[in-house]
Amino acid sequence: MRILGITIPEEKRLEIGLTVIFGIGRARAHKILKDADVDFGAKPKDVSVDDENNIRSLVEKYRLEGDLRREVSGNIKRLKDIKAYRGTRHAKGLPSRGQRTKTNTRTKRGNIRKTMGTGRRKVEKT
């Protein structure tokens, strides 16, 4: 099953498989399958061609994949251009929503900056 040029995994349930598409999470996948009148637990290989086309038409109503990625990156670029606080945080690769950075934010800053214990030098005993 291919939607918007993306192959939906054949062995996963449809409610999970649809989340492979950028812009579709669990809630939107549930809404699409409910509107298409398809069982959430059905697998893509077991779905009929009519149901598949119905799902495809419902999915194409939303702004997804390339268009959505372009819109998000455009929004971030706009924030950087107007030198907003959130834009500068994006540019520096730091969290933009007020989280602390002394500890945590490993995913955003990278795993390179490890804490080094207490920061005190070890004194050799002689």
UniProtKB/TrEMBL annotation:
Domain of life: Bacteria
GO biological process, one term: translation
Gene3D superfamilies recorded: 1.10.8.50, 30s ribosomal protein s13, domain 2
GO MF terms, alphabetically ordered: rRNA binding; structural constituent of ribosome; tRNA binding
Keyword annotations: Ribonucleoprotein, Ribosomal protein, RNA-binding, rRNA-binding, tRNA-binding
A Pfam family matched in the record: Ribosomal_S13
Entry function: Located at the top of the head of the 30S subunit, it contacts several helices of the 16S rRNA. In the 70S ribosome it contacts the 23S rRNA (bridge B1a) and protein L5 of the 50S subunit (bridge B1b), connecting the 2 subunits; these bridges are implicated in subunit movement. Contacts the tRNAs in the A and P-sites.
Subunit structure: Part of the 30S ribosomal subunit. Forms a loose heterodimer with protein S19. Forms two bridges to the 50S subunit in the 70S ribosome.
NCBIfam families with a match to the protein in the record: uS13_bact
Name the record gives this protein: Small ribosomal subunit protein uS13
Native source species: Candidatus Zambryskibacteria bacterium CG10_big_fil_rev_8_21_14_0_10_42_12
